[in-house]
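Entry type: protein chain
Record version: 2
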Amino acid sequence: MNNNSMNSQSILNIQKYLRTLSFFDKYKDIPPIAVDGVYGQETRNAVIAYQKLKNISQSGKVDRQTFNTLYKDYLSVLNYEKARTPYFNFPRYPRNFEFREGYRGFYIYLIKYLLNELQKNRDTYNEFELNDDYDEELSQAIREIQKTYLLPETGNVDALTWNSIISEYNQNQLNLLE
């Protein structure tokens, strides 16, 4: 498997496997990475960390041996290991910050990813196209989430909304492992 010829779905899968492994003590040297479909330096560094743990040549490239071992380990931890609870920090500054319509950036991508994961156990909003745009559709879904958490229905993601989403996501991830 050549990194230059991998499609974005293959890269997303590799990133998902690496990120999942990073939540387990056995793989704590693998940095948690973004699952964005881009094989950049962050993904390369995580691949190198994984290859080092597995005594595979540390090229940073996902060859057949690396992929097969990575996938096998991913399946193994899903079935047998207890994860450390994933944790995502909400920005501390500026004080009382909120993500709202019109905002763009990695956190928005992450919010959409988390909501897509939560949607698997809900039926309150549609799955999101993963991008970094805080649009009206996301704002409406946040209102629905806030309603279920009994929070003010602003459509903006403040620290309390963020922590509620993260808490549910973390609990769902741990439930998958039991």
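Comment: The first helix runs from residue 8 to 22.
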